[in-house]
Write a structure and sequence with these properties.
The complex is a heterodimer.
Chain A (H helix, E strand, L loop, with lengths): L5 E6 L2 E6 L4 H7 L30 E4 L6 E2 L10 E3 L3 H14 L17 H9 L17 E2 L4 E3 L9 H9 L5 E4 L6 E4 L12 H5 L5 E3 L12 E6 L8 E6 L12 E6 L12 H4 L14 E2 L5 E2 L2 H14 L3 E4 L6 H14 L4 E3 L23 H6 L7 H10 L4 E5 L4 H4 L2 H7 L3 E6 L4 H5 L2 E4 L8 E4 L5 E4 L12 H12 L2 H7 L1
Parallel strand pairs in A: 1-5, 16-17, 16-18, 18-19, 19-20
Antiparallel strand pairs in A: 1-2, 3-4, 3-5, 6-7, 7-10, 8-9, 11-12, 12-13, 14-15, 14-20, 21-22
Chain B lengths: L13 H4 L2 H26 L29 E2 L14 H5 L5 E7 L7 E9 L8 H5 L5 E2 L16 E2 L1 H5 L9
Antiparallel strand pairs in B: 1-4, 2-3, 3-5
The chains are: A alpha+beta, B alpha+beta.
Chain lengths: 506, 176
């Protein structure tokens, strides 16, 4: 495909270059001019209209020289020598009037609305609002607090009928749960009879809703959005590795039921996930606050809490003397973790078996849009290190035959693979070490249990199934004594080699 | 433009240095107030004057007299049907410079009200009585007109007032 031709046009008196056929609203955005808009969303296109611009909100209205009346910039293409004004008095007045019409029946219940603080109506009203309303009629009331699906709450009054949500369920998920009913002022968004908004991507309608008509049930009244901190991260929910933003509440701990992570929002990344994330990933943050491990424990032979130095000494000496070591790792490890994993378990300890393939504990549904079958983010990272995985049946026969006497389990619950047999199998071993961020049944059966930071508490990189490497940043402080996986591997390596002792002598 | 006026320091004359003159001047003022006030009280007592002299309020035996605009302890208001007006919008909590307001929200049974406070605590030990919470409230749910200034308690915990106490439904009792 040849590169589209570059055209020059004038925006607000400035010369701007754009690609031929580009929409004025997009060209303006590239030039740093944000034209207000509600209905236009580049992610909601159809084959017939790939740009996702129905042009029904009439808010992105601009003045084009030569045109008889103002034009909507989301449906006007850039042409050579075009003169566009988005801040002229006429354009401002047109935008103002459109916004006034949107607010005719809006209940203005911002104090109780969860969207408040990130609401399109609030933001644009501050910018272009007509502060003296000419509306004298009473507001029309519609239905509120409608449970649209397992994750979404619908409020018809607040809706401005931009149709983003209906276009999402029609064009993106193709599940058609939402529709527009009624005419004129009685027009409203509602569920299609007999359906509920329960598709695996339903949470996205909340993100694209520019007002508070669609809100998250999970997040409802938990914490106000202006208390939240945002951190760029990568979803560890499957091998797609969607770009996400972690919204955390740490400054006012009495909100959000005392939990630190309030919600997950998708981050636009055209290379990986586009605009969306699935509901599994969106609501998969609960494990960051629930059932976390924070203490280094020796659970068998005198149960006691250990310091890291003690734990490294005891575990490393037992690992080095163990006969037949098997390691159960998982794709939850970051690239940095895998890089520290290999010198320890492959080069130094010469583990008999290393297993990291997903079993039923880490497999799930997949579809053509985003979700992948392997529910771990970084299997590719192990492959890049040149690691080969054994299988769980191999491990089981090896344990039963007594070839494997020590097992190092990283972030996995073996009871989900072997069921009730797990306890019996683990009892045959001389040493079981578990390291992970969360409490699991395997962790309780282990001899040593080491706490690990969750992905939100460390920095690192995940390599997704396509080989794309993405960085995730640290959003939270580690809980208790938790250390990143690589730091534990490095600590064990040091103690194994006796480097610590030699340093002390020197 | 701000104009600058140079003021000369008072000269240290002998008159100033010996102090006695200045002490005497000060005592003159004190005694003038004393006798003028005495005369005013005497005239008021026998009915020759309508105006009394200056009065010292015998607080705490006599309750404090507060100006109408005085900001005193917070009070939460109710609607006509008796439910708290607060919709837990967190505006007061957000604006509070001392971060002494802690609100937890929940769904209200009334769908038109939508949201209400599950708990509403004000730590008066932290409050700076700035009155921003009153100004921030969009539903006129909080006032600072309880006209009580005796708020001391024997523990920090007892300085925290909960929703029932602020609404006036329950008397503030010290914890045992």
């Amino acid at each position: 495909m040849s590169e589209p031709k570059t055209v020059k046009f004038k925006l607000n008196g400035k010369d701007i270059e754009a690609k031929e056929g580009q929409l004025v609203i997009d060209a303006a955005k590239d030039a740093g001019v944000d034209i207000p808009h509600y209905c236009y969303h580049p992610g909601l296109g159809t084959p017939e209209n790939p740009k996702g611009n129905p042009g029904n909100c009439r808010l992105c209205i601009v003045e084009v020289a030569g045109a008889p009346k103002p034009q909507v910039s989301c449906r006007t293409q850039v042409k050579e020598g075009m003169v566009v004004a988005s801040d002229s008095p006429a354009a401002k007045r047109a935008q103002q009037s459109s916004l006034e019409l949107h607010l005719v029946n809006h209940p203005l219940d911002c104090p109780v609305c969860d969207q408040s603080g990130e609401c399109g109506l609030q933001n644009y009203y501050m910018e272009i609002g007509k502060y003296e309303s000419s509306v004298r009629e009473d507001k029309l009331h519609k239905n509120k607090r409608i449970v649209a699906g397992p994750h979404v709450m619908l409020d018809q009054e607040r809706c401005i009928l931009c149709t983003r949500c209906t276009r999402f369920v029609d064009n993106v998920t193709k599940t058609h749960e939402l529709g527009i009913f009624g005419r004129g002022h009685k027009e409203h968004i509602d569920l299609v009879p007999g359906k509920t908004l329960d598709n695996p991507y339903s949470g996205n309608v909340v993100d694209i809703c520019p007002v508070g008509a669609l809100t998250e049930r999970d997040f409802r009244y938990k914490v106000r959005v202006w208390y939240l901190d945002e951190t760029d991260s990568v979803c560890p929910g499957c091998s797609r590795g969607c770009s996400i933003s972690l919204h955390t509440n740490t400054k006012r701990p009495w909100h959000n039921d005392g939990k630190r992570v309030a919600r997950i929002k998708p981050r636009h990344n055209p290379e990986v996930n586009g605009w969306w994330i699935c509901d599994e990933g969106r609501y998969g943050y609960k494990s960051l606050d629930e059932d976390r491990l924070g203490r280094i424990m020796r659970l068998k032979d005198q149960r006691r809490e250990l310091s890291w130095t003690e734990a490294f000494e005891e575990v490393s000496s037992k690992l080095s003397s163990a006969k037949g070591l098997a390691v159960v790792a998982s794709g939850m490890l970051s690239n940095e973790d895998w890089a520290a994993f290999k010198p320890l378990f492959v080069d130094k300890l010469k583990a008999e078996q290393i297993i990291f393939t997903p079993e039923p504990d880490q497999l799930g549904e997949e579809d053509a849009l985003l979700r992948k079958r392997e529910k771990v983010p970084n299997l590719k990272g192990a492959e890049v290190q040149g690691l080969k995985s054994y299988s769980f049946p191999d491990l089981r026969t090896a344990i039963e035959k007594g070839e494997v006497k020590a097992l190092y389990v990283i972030e996995r619950d073996l009871t989900k693979i072997w069921g009730e047999k797990t306890e019996e199998l683990l009892a045959k071993l001389d040493l079981v070490v578990f390291q992970g961020p969360n409490k699991t049944a395997t962790g309780d059966l282990a001899h040593y249990r080491l706490p690990v930071t969750a992905y939100a508490e460390e920095e690192g990189h995940f390599t997704n199934f396509e080989g794309k490497v993405q960085a995730y940043k640290r959003a939270l402080e580690p809980l208790g004594q938790a250390k990143p996986d690589w730091a534990i591997f490095a600590g064990l390596s040091e103690h194994l080699a006796g480097e610590r002792q030699r340093e002390a002598v020197a | 433009m701000i104009s600058v006026t140079t003021v000369r320091r008072p000269a240290r004359t002998l008159f100033v240095q010996i102090y006695f003159v200045e002490i005497f001047k000060g005592l003159m003022i004190t005694f003038r107030h004393f006798f003028v006030n005495l005369a005013k009280h005497a005239l008021y007592a026998v009915g020759l004057s309508k105006e009394s002299g200056a009065v010292t309020i015998q607080f705490p035996d006599v309750p404090a007299m507060l100006g109408l605009r005085a900001r005193t302890r917070h009070r939460l208001l109710k609607r006509e049907d008796g439910t708290p007006r607060c919709t837990a919008c967190m505006c007061c909590e957000t604006i509070c410079p001392a971060k002494c307001i802690h609100i937890v929200a929940e769904d209200s049974p009334d769908v038109r009200v939508e949201k209400r406070a599950k708990s509403f605590d004000i730590d008066l030990g932290l409050c700076v009585f700035c009155g921003y919470c009153v100004e921030a409230c969009p539903v006129d749910a909080i006032h600072m007109d309880a006209n009580r200034v005796e708020l001391s308690a024997y523990s920090r915990k007892d300085m925290i007032w909960n929703m029932q106490e602020l609404l006036g439904d329950k008397k503030k009792e010290p914890s045992s």
